[in-house]
Specification:
3-stranded antiparallel beta sheet, binds zinc ion, 9 helices, Nucleotidyltransferase, domain 5, single chain, globular, alpha/beta, 37% helix
Length: 317
C-alpha cells in the first residue's frame, strides 16, 4: 500500500497519523484515494472517494451536514475579500448557473458557514506551537467604523472600534487582531498577553509608534523586552511592517469604510482574515511559504475545506 498525502506537498510533515485526516478504504484499509464526486443529501452531502489500489468507491463520512465543498470554499474566500453576506449568496447562485452545479443558499446559510468555520479556526490555532522565534514584534492600532444606533446609551456611543494588531516581523506572523470598544490600558495589555500566549515566547524588541497607552502596556506587560518607539520622522529607513500589514488588511474584509454592528462580528472578521493570512496565503518574501510554515507549524491543509476536514478528524467539533 502506498501512502500518498493527497494535499501533495513535501513541506508538511504530519504530526498526526494520516488516518486522522482521511477515511480509509473499507476493502484494503488504505488511504490512497482520489476524490470522486459529491453525493448530495438534504442536509448537504458527502464526499465520494475512490480507492487508487482496488477501485472501491466509498463515502467520506467526515463532515455530516456540511455544504458542498466548492460552496464553502467560495463563501469563505468571498468573505475574506469583501464580507457582505447578500452578494456572497448571490455569487453562489450565479456561480452555480455558470458551472451548472445547482446550489442556492440564503444569507443565513452564508452566516452559518462563516461562523462554523470560525469555531474550528479558534480551536485549531491553539493546537500549534511556534518553533521559530522572532526577535522583533511590531504593534499598532487601527480603527474600524461601527454602525451607530439611535437612542443608544451615551457611553456605548462610539463611532469606531479599535483593533490592536501585533505581528512577529521576521516570519510575518500576524499574532493578534484584538478588537476593543475604545483605547484603554487594560485592552492594550490583554492584546499583548494574547500575543505572548499564542506565540509561546516574548520578543527581544517590540516596535511601537502608536498611542502612549499602547507604549505603556508594552512596558508593563513585557518587562524583559526592549521597547523601540522611534517614529518614522526620526528614522526614515525603517520599514514599518505593520504599515504593510494594514494595507493588506484594508484590502481584505476590514476595508476602511466597512462598518460593523458589534465587537463580536468584527472580531470574527479580523480573526478569519488573520487565519487566512497566516495559514492559507503564501507569502512572496517567505519564498512562497505561509507565515505559519515560517514559524515552524506543520499543518496539512491548504484550503478552507481541507481545514474543516482536518478539524473534524482531530475532533474539534
Ligand atoms: Zn482500497
Amino acid at each position: 500500500m502506498t501512502t500518498k498525502n493527497p494535499f501533495d506537498n513535501n513541506i508538511v510533515d504530519l504530526t498526526f497519523p494520516l488516518e486522522f485526516y482521511f477515511q480509509p478504504c473499507p476493502t484494503c484499509n488504505g488511504i490512497d484515494f482520489t476524490k470522486s464526486g459529491w453525493a448530495p443529501s438534504k442536509t448537504g452531502g458527502t464526499q465520494r472517494l475512490k480507492c487508487n489500489v482496488d477501485g472501491t468507491r466509498y463515502d467520506d463520512n467526515a463532515i455530516p451536514g456540511m455544504n458542498k465543498p466548492w460552496v464553502v470554499e467560495y463563501v469563505m474566500n468571498q468573505y475574506i475579500n469583501s464580507g457582505h453576506y447578500a452578494p456572497i449568496a448571490r455569487g453562489v447562485r450565479s456561480q452555480s448557473i455558470v458551472d451548472k452545479r445547482a446550489a442556492y443558499i440564503s444569507k443565513s446559510t452564508v452566516h452559518n458557514i462563516i461562523s462554523n468555520t470560525y469555531e474550528q479556526v479558534k480551536f485549531i490555532e491553539r493546537k500549534f506551537f511556534h518553533a521559530m522565534y522572532s526577535s522583533d514584534w511590531e504593534v499598532d492600532d487601527m480603527f474600524q467604523r461601527r454602525v451607530r444606533f439611535e437612542n443608544q446609551d451615551e457611553k456605548l456611543n462610539y463611532r469606531h472600534f479599535k483593533v490592536t494588531n501585533i505581528i512577529a516581523v521576521k516570519p510575518r506572523y500576524w499574532l493578534v487582531a484584538h478588537v476593543t470598544p475604545r483605547i484603554g490600558l487594560k485592552y492594550a495589555k490583554t492584546a499583548i498577553v494574547e500575543a505572548v500566549l499564542r506565540a509561546g515566547y516574548s520578543p527581544l524588541v517590540i516596535r511601537c509608534d502608536g498611542s502612549r497607552t499602547l507604549r505603556n502596556a508594552c512596558t508593563i506587560t513585557l518587562v524583559d523586552t526592549k521597547l523601540d518607539t522611534k517614529t518614522k520622522d526620526e528614522e526614515f529607513n525603517i520599514v514599518n511592517y505593520d504599515e504593510i500589514l494594514h494595507r493588506i488588511v484594508r484590502s481584505m474584509n476590514l476595508g476602511k469604510t466597512r462598518r460593523f454592528f458589534s465587537i463580536e462580528s468584527l472580531q470574527r472578521a479580523a480573526d478569519l482574515c488573520r487565519f487566512h493570512y497566516n495559514f492559507l496565503r503564501p507569502h512572496q518574501t517567505l519564498h512562497n511559504l505561509t507565515p505559519a510554515m515560517a514559524v515552524g507549524i506543520k499543518y496539512p491543509f491548504r484550503t478552507w475545506i481541507d481545514l474543516l476536514t482536518y478539524a473534524h478528524r482531530v475532533g474539534f467539533d
